[in-house]
């Protein structure tokens, strides 16, 4: 039960009744939301201000007429006009009791919706170069993308989770050379790893595998051939390592797309470039030098250019380098055309902070290859700064001195890692404080939320101990006399439960899973506060052996809180323990 959606429907129906000339597009702009100041009521709508001008009326005049329609409605305690024409509603307790019943009835599905109406969405995230284990810099994007995918699936979208394997280019050759050195080491040679190679110990098993499979044969080959063999073995091993790392965070992808599919004769880049020429989206020309610092990839020459400015980009983009090789952007266009041809009109790319300059060019590419039918949202995950002994800890795959995803999970656990990385907007830099994440205090957000769920479970154990004859089955809770819950503390908690469906929908539309983390934290805080009031005021206690009927109603409320916290944590991919050690 989404009371905001319910009252949006009721308000728009009232407007249609009074003004049948209003069209659906205009009425779709009517919003019902919580007022900025809770003292003004439970709901507020902009309806009068949306329709007043097209009707040629004063907003307060329209608002006054709407207010009259809602006066005397059983579930509306009061309704009034505020400011330039806002309408504020204060709801009767009866509607909050309906919300509580809805939570109990819908259970694990409370907050789910068909908002997406089955629209297919491709969410590409992580896409780390397969040259080593996942480090903390990749972890934030992995968690964000996975939580967003769950959130959108919850909201009725058909979601595909995709990983783009960047398995071509110079870094894979360096990986092959690095693995070949480890192969020589496995054969008993003493090696020295040159600067610019990958020195991490994670390549030692790759060298050993090469030695076991090929013996000393690679030593007798031309080096370039041996490097290619070593590269293939290393790439396969690194992808298995990456998948294992992600599995520790319960991150799994539906599709692993190899960049190699784009390259070579008959590949997607070649096909896409031919298609772009046919569509008149490519021309031969020169680019003006960029303002400020000249990038390394700029060349003052006649070259093949994509008309990116026709699709909102700041400049047209080169597709072919002077040596005849395709640019990275040519691969980007081909890849996103491939997505579009696979049936994805909605795409989300989760990229690291060093890719912030890619947003406009990717948007232009998707508009072009889809003739403006498809859209893409590029979400940038800012850096995570780990504190070690009070000092930033630098990471580099090539140096071998890094904190991996696996290290992080081993240190604080998957739940804490996921929640803390989601407890901030993706586009805001953050510090990950190891000491804080290990604390069992209210200052530790993930502990605070999980403790609320565990506390709710504990209350049921207390009820079983103190009131063993009380039936607390699902059927009994569904039949509880929730109208007995009429204190300000009861209603405040139920009101927050009523905000859950709207929170999920808004987070899905905005592609912001941090809203879910914020919500469950707020709900946990409200529940802890509710429990504390019961310690001081016996009338607010949940378990009261002298009041079995009221106890059952309060247990229905506790169960609803427990369920919504579990639903929220489930979207975030975080466990909801029944006990905390």
From TrEMBL:
Entry keyword Ribonucleoprotein: no
Catalytic activity, reaction form: tRNA(Arg) + L-arginine + ATP = L-arginyl-tRNA(Arg) + AMP + diphosphate
Keyword terms: Aminoacyl-tRNA synthetase, ATP-binding, Cytoplasm, Ligase, Nucleotide-binding, Protein biosynthesis
GO molecular function (one): arginine-tRNA ligase activity
UniProt-listed CDD domains: ArgRS_core
Organism: Devosia rhizoryzae
Arginyl tRNA synthetase N-terminal domain span: 5-91
Subcellular location: Cytoplasm
Start and end residues of each DALR anticodon binding domain: 449-580
Cited PANTHER family: ARGININE--TRNA LIGASE, CYTOPLASMIC, ARGINYL-TRNA SYNTHETASE
Gene3D superfamilies: Arginyl tRNA synthetase N-terminal domain, HUPs, Isoleucyl-tRNA Synthetase, Domain 1
Alphabetized NCBIfam families for the sequence: argS
This protein's record includes keyword Ligase: yes
Annotated EC: 6.1.1.19
Alphabetical list of PROSITE patterns matching this protein: AA_TRNA_LIGASE_I (PS00178)
Family: Belongs to the class-I aminoacyl-tRNA synthetase family.
Pfam families named in the record: Arg_tRNA_synt_N, DALR_1, tRNA-synt_1d
InterPro entries to which the protein is assigned, alphabetical: aa-tRNA-synth_I_CS (IPR001412), Arg-tRNA-ligase (IPR001278), Arg-tRNA-synth_N (IPR005148), Arg-tRNA-synth_N_sf (IPR036695), ArgRS_core (IPR035684), DALR_anticod-bd (IPR008909), Rossmann-like_a/b/a_fold (IPR014729), tRNAsynth_Ia_anticodon-bd (IPR009080)
Annotated protein name in UniProt: Arginine--tRNA ligase
Gene: argS
SUBUNIT field: Monomer.
């Amino acid at each position: 039960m989404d009371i905001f959606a319910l009252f949006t429907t009721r308000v728009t129906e009232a407007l249609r009744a009074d003004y049948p000339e209003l069209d659906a597009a205009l009425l779709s702009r009517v919003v019902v939301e919580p007022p900025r100041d809770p003292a003004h009521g439970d709901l507020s709508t902009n309806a009068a201000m949306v329709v007043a001008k097209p009707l040629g009326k004063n907003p307060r005049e329209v608002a006054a007429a709407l207010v009259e329609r809602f006066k005397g409605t059983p579930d509306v305690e009061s309704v009034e006009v505020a400011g330039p024409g806002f309408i504020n509603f204060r709801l009767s307790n009866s509607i909050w009791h309906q919300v509580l019943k809805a939570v109990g009835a819908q259970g694990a599905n409370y907050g789910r919706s068909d908002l997406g109406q089955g629209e297919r969405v491709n969410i590409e995230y992580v896409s780390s170069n397969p040259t080593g284990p996942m480090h903390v810099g990749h972890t934030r994007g992995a968690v964000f993308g996975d939580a967003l995918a769950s959130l959108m699936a919850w909201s009725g979208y058909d979601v595909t989770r995709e990983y783009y394997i960047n398995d071509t280019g110079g870094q894979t050759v360096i990986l092959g050379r690095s693995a070949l050195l480890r192969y020589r080491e496995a054969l008993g040679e003493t090696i020295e790893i040159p600067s610019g190679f990958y020195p991490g110990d994670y390549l030692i098993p790759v060298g050993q595998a090469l030695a076991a499979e090929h013996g000393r044969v690679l030593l007798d080959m031309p080096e370039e051939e041996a490097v290619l063999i070593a590269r293939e073995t290393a790439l396969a091993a690194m992808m298995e390592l990456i998948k294992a790392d992600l599995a520790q965070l319960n991150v799994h992808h539906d599709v692993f797309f190899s960049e190699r599919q784009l390259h070579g004769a008959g590949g997607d880049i070649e096909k896409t470039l031919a298609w772009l020429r046919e569509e008149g989206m490519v021309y031969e020309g020169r680019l003006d030098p960029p303002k400020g610092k000249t990038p390394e990839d700029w060349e003052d020459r006649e070259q093949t250019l994509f008309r990116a400015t026709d699709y909102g980009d700041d400049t047209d983009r080169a597709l072919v380098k002077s040596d005849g090789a395709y640019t990275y952007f040519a691969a980007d266009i081909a890849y996103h055309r491939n997505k579009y041809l696979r049936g994805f009109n909605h795409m989300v790319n989760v990229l690291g902070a060093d890719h912030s300059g890619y947003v406009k060019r990717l948007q232009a590419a998707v508009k072009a290859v889809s003739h403006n039918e498809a859209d893409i949202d590029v979400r940038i995950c800012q850096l995570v700064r780990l504190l070690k002994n009070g000092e930033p800890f630098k990471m580099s795959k090539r140096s071998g001195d890094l904190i991996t995803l696996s290290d992080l999970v081993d240190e604080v656990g998957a739940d804490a890692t996921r929640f803390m990385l989601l407890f901030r907007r993706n586009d805001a830099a953050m510090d990950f404080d190891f000491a804080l994440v290990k604390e069992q205090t209210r200052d530790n957000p993930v502990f605070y939320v999980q403790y609320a769920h565990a506390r709710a479970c504990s209350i049921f154990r207390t009820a079983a101990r103190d009131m063993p004859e009380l039936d607390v089955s699902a059927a009994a809770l569904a039949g509880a006399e929730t109208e007995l819950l009429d204190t300000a503390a009861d209603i405040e908690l139920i009101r927050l439960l009523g905000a859950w469906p709207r929170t999920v929908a808004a987070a899905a539309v905005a592609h912001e899973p941090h809203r879910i983390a914020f919500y469950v934290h707020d709900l946990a805080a409200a529940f802890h506060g509710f429990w504390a009031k019961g310690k001081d005021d016996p009338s607010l206690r949940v378990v009261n052996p002298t009041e079995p009927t009221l106890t059952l109603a309060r247990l229905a409320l506790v169960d609803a809180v427990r369920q919504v916290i579990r639903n929220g944590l489930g979207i975030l991919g975080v466990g909801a323990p029944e006990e905390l050690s």
